[in-house]
Amino acid sequence: MARILVTNSEGTPGVGQTAEMLARGGGGLDAIEAGIRLVEADTSIRSVGRGGWPNLLGEVELDAAMIDGNSFRSGAVGALKGFLHPISIARAVLERLPHEMLVGEGAARFAREIGAEMADNLIPDSERVWREWFEDKVPAEDRKSWPDVPLTALCQEAIDPEKGMDTTVFLALDSAQEIMAGVSTSGWAWKYPGRLGDSPIVGAGCYADSRFGAAACTGTGEMAIRAGTSRAIVLYMKMGLSLEAAMDEAIDDLRQLKGGLLQRITLHAIDRNGSHRVVAVNAKEQLTYWLWREGEDGPHAEPAELVDL
Ligand code: ASP
Fold this sequence. Notes:
The protein has helices at about 10-25, 30-40, 85-95, 105-115, 125-135, 140-145, 220-225, 230-240, 245-255, and strands at about 5-10, 60-70, 75-80, 100-105, 165-175, 180-185, 205-210, 215-220, 265-270, 275-280, 290-295, 300-305, 305. The chain is of the alpha+beta class. A hairpin with a 4-residue loop joins β9 and β10 (about 275-280).
């Protein structure tokens, strides 16, 4: 079984590091965490970590998760403010707590407790774009009593496809034949405060089972939550379907969703034989992803398959 790594295009700053660590025989969780940390710290990636888009209140809330496909231990943090590396805090949840997920104040408290690096994740350019939106879209009387105003109507901004969205996802089969997944995101720009997407919800935004494979989603997290997409892909493989057929089933599940937010969602998966597949559902443009396989010098970009529901 050959080692393999799949990341989406947001993984660019970290994919080389992760591939190198896997090539040297490193463990999947270590390699994924190291790669995602580079993405989180890179302010040119506008949907992950520092530089990510803020919520409706102009605050950056970050989500991240890791899952170990051997033990099925996972660690996730959601709506975390003020820390540079949510992926490492998620990993500490996995390794140091009897819990699987922490959110908001509790996640920040835990981050402080383990000495996680703090950061002001709202970079000036994101603040400028948010402020322009605030001046333009928030009625004058609401601006006066801000932030004690109803946000429900403004929340429609969160589904504006022109606004930034994305996540970074890393799936790896390492030299010990163990399969791991990690994801990190700032979620949707202008989201309602406290909104969690699929990324920190293990089974929705990512899943791994070393016996079969791993999957992760980017895009409209609300869809992956409703269909339990990442868990579904791995479970369909367990039920005997090939990677290809398992993803077709998961896409069919997405087709059954009625109402709510139905936009672009991209599915990434690997299996224990070292196969992979990346499908962009409802994408308006060609998307690429990174692939590295054992024996290759480094990662290379590949186009995702495009499917419309
Ligand atoms: N899936 C992420 C979320 O819903 C965002 C994205 O990948 O575009 O928070």
